[in-house]
Amino acid sequence: MSLTLHGIGIGGGVAIGHAHLISHTDIEIAHYTVRPEDIAGEVTRYDSAVKTARQELEMLWGSIPDNAPTELGAFLSLHIMLLNDHTLSVEPREIIEKRKCNAEWALKLQLDALLAQFDEIEEEYLRERRTDVIQVTERIFKTLAGHDMAMHTPAPTDRDSILVAHDLSPADMVLFKDSEYTAFITDVGGPTSHTAILARSLDLPSVLALRHARSLIHEDELLIVDGVNGVVIVNPDERTLTEYRARQDEWTVRQAKLQDIRTSLPVTQDGIEIELFGNIELPEDTDQVLENHATGIGLFRSEFLFLSEDDLPTEEEQYQAYRSVAEQMAGQPVIIRTIDLGKDKIPKWQEESDAPNPAMGLTGIRLCLAEAQLFRTQLRALLRASAHGKIKLLVPMLSHVGEVKQTRRHLEEVKAQLRAENIPFDEQIELGGMIEVPAAAFTVEHFLHHLDFASIGTNDLIQYTLAVDRNDDAVSHLYDPVHPAVIRLLHHVISTCNRVGKPISMCGEMAGDPALTRLLLGLGLRRFSMLPARLLKVKEQVLSTDLAAIQPLITQLLEADEIDGLRQVMEQLQA
Ligand code: PEP
Ligand code: MG
To answer: What percentage of the chain exceeds 70 in pLDDT?
Structure first.
């Protein structure tokens, strides 16, 4: 039966392919011995994970909407039944006791045994229940792990594979960058979560926040993923397939047409020159920036070097990474952001944060100033690499001017060290600050006294201005880049920087949204930094905009209120 699911579309057109569910085999499961005196506690931990999983399923079952497909209820009851079965509720406890192992390992052993039995079954209906067993155990694994599961990249089959996951962490997405999926869909995730940003950077059709996709979709089912409208169709009929194949072709033709402006300079109709930069996560993304003829790199999220490895990268490893980007860009500016870990980006070597609210905790520059050794090692690597190209530094999460001053002190001390060691670096290296906390936006002129340039991080600025967690799909409808408060803040920051003559750019997702290009141009922004996949779409907007002509609309927009004027003015701006 065909089924349509709605979520948040991340763009990238339409994909048609077969579902590949992230399954238990993709989960890295820890194995350790439990001391005899701790066995009872481990059994209790397992019991309570099963209990939580059961409660979650019962809650889901109780909240099934009236118009939901009848299968949904049947699936959930089956899952509750499996969870209650002694193979999952009792036998893993016995394994813990007998083998003196941790609960995860006991569950893994039990699952392997169950799956081996399923493989023997000839009857198709029963064999299909294998997926259900995997899904139920995954729920227990997840509860045991306290949510985030580490995953390995599963190899896609030779057909078009669509990755179906409950959730993907930024670290998982880094692994998936090398895989060959044609689309991604997940149950959770906000529109500017790092998962969404990475999915967008792959320019694959992706839909997030589908809620129950992981439990409704079976391995290998045919899916249509419409990343533009945020729709996933499971087991589409022939007519729907034909329609979406036509849309896919249209998309491909449009993408090909965009290539015509690849080498054109981004200049508005009335002759204003605009600079378009690329955002990268890893050195290998530089190719895409070059292919799309960007002015330079406006944001290298250096913390991704720290996410993909088991250990902290050494100074030498960092130096090589920064140097390779600087050299590839051959003198074009490369803005490297200092480590922005914390929040949702937790490296493997760092303990899971127990901060009550990580987004407001020790993150970005706060973490770097608290961990001076980590910071100085990075500054050394960055300075050394600055001898090989036009590197500029960018500091994330500023909220106090004192943080810039402290950063400058560290920088000067590291420079002095390098001078003493006769190691070359760029003496004039520029230091910029990210404006992504409302406090820094309101008082940007104070920060500008100590900075060479600024870059607006709208992903966080919107999150903190509107008090909407960018990763939480439950409030994603409130995450609004054109909320009047956001527009006014942006206007204040951009006009202040323009007035005092300090370069200002924007590197949040807003900068790469072609529907917002005219708004930002009208607010006075001249430097945009975005995922390379967005460069041509934004350039297309720049080329078709007459800045003088839209200025009256911008004046109106700055006065408009959220309900009445604003949406109409936005529509006129796009016309
Ligand atoms: C931002 O907050 O807009 C930004 C560019 O930084 P990140 O998305 O990495 O937090
Ligand atoms: Mg940010």
So the answer is: 90
